[in-house]
Amino acid sequence: MTEKKKEGFFVVKQEDMEEDLPKVNEECPDCGHDLAFFWTKQTRSSDEPETKFYRCVKCKKTWREYQ
Hints:
By secondary structure, the protein is mainly beta. It has a domain at 21-66: Single Sheet (N-terminal domain of TfIIb), CATH 2.20.25. 6% of the residues lie in helices and 40% in strands. The protein has 1 helix and 6 strands; from the N terminus they run ββαββββ. The strands form 2 sheets. The chain has a 4-stranded antiparallel β-sheet with strand order 3-4-5-6, with no helix packed on it. It has a two-stranded antiparallel sheet with strand order 1-2.
C-alpha cells in the first residue's frame, strides 16, 4: 500500500487500498458476484454502531450496511 504522510494524515491511493482489505462472502447488489472487500468506518455519532462498507471484487460497486 502506498502511503504519504501529510500534516498528520495518511493519503492512500484507492487502487492500492483493495490489496490490503479482507474479502468476505457478500453478494453484490448489481452483478450478483459473491465476493467483496470490506472495511468499517464510524460515520455517525460515537454512541451509534459503525458502518460496514463493501466493494465487489468483480464490478467494483461499493455499498454500505448499517448495523
